[in-house]
Amino acid sequence: MGSKVYFTDFRCPVGTSQIDKIKRLCKVAGINNIDFDGKFTAIKMHFGELGNLAFLRPNYAKAIVDIVKEAGGKPFLTDCNTLYPGSRKNALDHLDCANINGFNPMSTGCQIIIADGLRGTDETIVPINGDYIKEAKIGKAIMDADVFISLSHFKGHESTGFGGTIKNIGMGCGSRAGKKEQHCSGTPHVDEKLCRGCKQCFKECANNGLEYDETTHKMHINETNCVGCGRCLGACNFDAISFNNYNANELLNKRMAEYTKAVVDGRPNFHISLIVDVSPNCDCHAENDLPILPNIGMLASFDPLALDQACVDLCMKAKPMPGSQLDKHLHDPNFCDHHDHF
């Protein structure tokens, strides 16, 4: 049999709420079949970069926390530190960011633990012997949990096409070293004819992988330092940066899938994804564009891959939001966009 994915839209009759709906969705999908009694339960989500307003509201997290606590579990919200600069690059900044964006014990009903520690180095080595990854480096607190739940915001992504459940788990649960390992397929190059010397990409590089030539006013890649994370691609508005390795993004997705396997294998796990405020780029950006698709609904499943596929299918059937980046892309044959949405 194929895996089951459960769906509900965001419509709410008077007297009900979306919080009621997400709780009912999870219970119908079978979350209460998990034995939570006395179990540490990691709820993996994205707290949103400062300046971004597309991330999931803390109210949704509290709904999942309530379900776990009602069943006797000990839930905590969690994420790992980022590979790039920003407001979530270490545990202290990360917790400040989460608090500013509304995630704290008062609003969510549980504590927040940054799974890979202060500097992103607290990790558990998980042997998986995959085709691309032999040992995954996962944030320690995530692997210490007895039960794993993912709560994902489904949206576009500049390197992986879309960010959903597997992105939230595979990349999101990797320690800083784990994230670097997933991004190591290739290094980008800069087309000097297209480079405007604006230095926007320079702000996104966390590893001294970019060098600016003051004579030519062009950016160059330092291949010794570059880890191939792809943040500079998303930052360039002029398509001046691309990967040398044509299949770098494909390999990134495959490594990410194997990291997801390392996280979920061998313990109870459950997954929720919300197709809401579908921004063209990841919530890791310090901004968000107009949603490219309408708010579609909430989905839940025990199978993270089936859940992502269901979300993609629903998005592919939806009409673009008028005036959005996706709407412009579909109606203007001369519009050039280096992002691959779904």
Can you list the strand order of the major beta sheet? 1-15-14-7-2-3-4
Decide which structural class fits the backbone.
alpha/beta
- The radius of gyration is 20 Å
Distance between the termini: 26 Å
Share of helix among residues? 25-40%
Morphology call: globular
Helices and strands, in order, run as EHEHEHHEEEHEEEHHEEEHEHEEHH
Give the overall pLDDT as a whole number.
Answer: 92
Percentage of β-strand residues: 15-25%
Outline the biggest β-sheet: 7 strands, mixed
Task: Give short descriptive properties of this protein.
342 residues, alpha/beta, 7-stranded mixed sheet, two-stranded antiparallel ribbon
Task: Summarize, please.
This protein is an alpha/beta fold and about 350 residues long. The chain contains eleven helices and 15 strands.
Q: How would you characterize this protein structure?
A:
With about 350 residues, this protein is of the alpha/beta class. Helices cover about 30% and strands about 20% of the residues. It contains eleven helices and 15 strands. The strands form five sheets. It has a seven-stranded mixed β-sheet with strand order 1-15-14-7-2-3-4, with helices on both faces. Strands 5-6 form a two-stranded antiparallel sheet. A two-stranded antiparallel ribbon has the order 8-9. α1 packs across α2. The chain is globular, with a radius of gyration of 20 Å. The relative contact order is 0.17. The mean pLDDT is about 90.
Task: Record the SSE blueprint.
Layout: E1 5-8, H1 18-28, E2 40-44, H2 58-70, E3 74-79, H3 91-100, H4 105-108, E4 111-114, E5 123-127, E6 135-139, H5 140-144, E7 147-153, E8 155-157, E9 161-163, H6 165-171, H7 176-182, E10 188-190, E11 210-213, E12 218-221, H8 231-235, E13 241-243, H9 248-264, E14 269-275, E15 297-301, H10 304-317, H11 325-331
Parallel strand pairs: 2-3, 2-7, 3-4, 7-14
Antiparallel strand pairs: 1-15, 5-6, 8-9, 10-13, 11-12, 14-15
